[in-house]
Amino acid sequence: MNQPHYILLPVNSLFIAFSFIAAFFLNFLPWGGMVGVPDFVALVLVFWSIHQPLKVGIGVAFAMGLVMDVHDAIYLGENALAYTLLSYFAITIHRRVLWFHPVTQCLHVFPLFLFVQGLQTGVRLLIAPEAHFPGWLYFSQSLVTTLLWPVATLILLAPQRRAIDKDHNRPI
Q: Are 45 and 55 in contact (CB under 8 A)?
């Protein structure tokens, strides 16, 4: 509790758009069939849904879900449904989550990431009965995405922490 609390500057909408584009391109990387690769779009979506629920909401989540559906070449609407519910639940808990330190916030966002990954797996198994359950190690993606939460908080809040005019006599 001895850490100073900073008053954040307003977020720039272009920075939010840039962070979604960067997350989308990080999902483009050729990870192959590696286990535990985080979903960067879901991470950025939850972050902005918690920190800026009026700017990033369910509509943005649905649009990003459709873009990810086209990218993944899977059933149209699978990611859109998952990201829409992810954004809804993130907005629902956003006031509670902001009271905690970013490391403690991981305990709140982990069930969100796990729910979304379970929903995506359930939709795939429901639509294609010949598909098999990917195994429990498949859900390590949620854990890795959650472990990246403090890093994402540090990076995505950095532009808001800088002062507009440097005044060494002002404590905030």
A: no
